[in-house]
Amino acid sequence: MGKDRGAGVARAGIGFGSALAIAISWTANKSLLWAIVHGILGWLYVGYYALVYHFR
Question: Is 56 exposed, middle or buried (CB count within 10 Å of its CB: 0-12, 13-18, 19+)?
């Protein structure tokens, strides 16, 4: 039971990271192609965006 629950939480985190990356990308670039690329990268893009643009 604990193993299955952990997999669901991980999937939800990956899904949320992708959705967040797509939203940030669309807001910043207004490009569907970049939104797809950043959605695939997920949390990597969210972290990059936070470090480069948010915490200046």
Answer: exposed
Q: pLDDT, tens digit, for every residue of 7-39?
A: 776 677 778 999 999 999 999 999 999 999 999
Helix (H) / strand (E) element for 15: namely: helix 2-29
Give pTM, 2 decimals: 0.77
**Cα distance between residue 6 and residue 47, in whole Å:** 23
Decide if 23 contacts 47 (C-beta within 8 A): no
Rg (CA), the chain: 13
**pLDDT at residue 56, rounded to an integer:** 72
Q: Which residue has the tokens 């669901």?
A: 8
Nearest to 20 by CA among 56, 48, 55: 48
